[in-house]
């Protein structure tokens, strides 16, 4: 099934997706809170749950989804679950076992969407962040097209309905799109995207290839100490966004997300606060005018909150890697 068909089926473009916390939030939230937030989100009406093996909470999230299926709130086919293949599992023979392990944790028979989490590969093995004796992350160089073939095989085996990528730039996408014998195109590319990094070039490229761009950190990220530079401007404090929000009678968060939705971007928004989970769902009963869209567009500065060096905590090891992340 194509992602377009999925979008139609799941109204993915019309649902802000509920993004669950990743590794960086271990210090702030418990896994149980992730489960509770998942239940709140499903009750509110969210149907797309974006998660990953790396986040370490697939057991709790799967339990919450299954509880909501068991109590009759939703059926399995109403839920659109996205999972991700972490960088230690890109060797082709590790892809299916990684997916099966996630499915077992989740208590699900299949995922709706499975993504290669980043184009960067670490040394294959069970260590999520393999490091050498100097504490530097050990990278590896499986041809990403071979990883992709293994992803295709997972789809053929019925373990996942659609496959895609995350943090890819256009060159990396082209590598897969032009791979000899390509069976399935990536249906989406999940990347950092917000008013300060509006990804207009990558969006144009993705649209031209019928690849959906999915945005994360749309609210300006969770601003976790040590993971982002707190001196960077914050989406929700941007004067233009605040002014437009006042004008349309909405919150800054709603305007920041609505701006992306109107450009055809799928929006992921993470919150563990029930009131915000509800607020972030109220995006479909208002519109930004062309003039307001242009004003928000003018805020772009190609500024990134998350870089792979911070992400893997291997600043000295990944000068090259930073340049290839989408
Ligand atoms: N694919 C990838 O490689 C990748 C990379 C990085 C991150 N991600 C994913 O992106 C997710 C979220 O990204 P992010 O942390 O950068 O998040 P974000 O969605 O931009 O921001 C989340 C932060 O905004 C707050 N928030 C939510 N709704 C709000 C509202 N209406 N008003 C004010 N504040 C609000 C949340 O606080 P409360 O929770 O307290 O409400 C949280 O602190 C991560 O959990 C991870 O899953 C993916």
UniProtKB/TrEMBL annotation:
The entry's keywords: Signal
Name used for this protein in its record: NADP-dependent oxidoreductase domain-containing protein
Pfam families listed in its UniProt record: Aldo_ket_red
Residue ranges of every copy of the NADP-dependent oxidoreductase domain listed in the record: 29-300
Keyword Signal: yes
Family under the similarity heading: Belongs to the aldo/keto reductase family.
Organism field: Staurois parvus
Taxonomic superkingdom: Eukaryota
Signal sequence annotation: 1-34
Coiled-coil stretches: none
